[in-house]
From TrEMBL:
Superkingdom as given in the UniProt entry: Bacteria
Cross-referenced InterPro entries: DUF1816
Record protein name field: DUF1816 domain-containing protein
Originating species: Leptolyngbya foveolarum
One protein family per Pfam: DUF1816
């Protein structure tokens, strides 16, 4: 019975997050938390626009309900521009 109530609580109180991945730089970004999916949808375009202004490439976004991620920005591999700056 405890599991049922715990799952029910999680369902109603788990926040919404926007997950955005980019190919260049190769990163995953999390934005949130949001109280509702509708609220996340309202903010999603602004976050995408910010990344486009920073010249991010191949941007994909999704909205998901989950607990807070361990990291808000995850760099999957060094970007080409970072690698170019290192090799002199």
């Amino acid at each position: 019975m405890k599991n049922f109530f715990s799952n029910l609580f999680d369902f109603f109180f788990t926040p919404w997050w926007i997950k955005i991945t980019t190919a260049e730089p190769k990163c995953i970004y999390y934005f949130g938390p949001f109280e509702s999916e509708k609220e996340a949808v309202q903010y999603q375009a602004g976050f995408i626009e910010d990344l486009q202004q920073e010249n991010a490439q191949q941007i994909t976004a999704s909205i998901q309900r989950s607990s807070a991620p361990d990291q808000l920005t995850i760099e999957l591999e060094p970007s080409k521009s970072s690698a170019a700056m290192v090799s002199v």
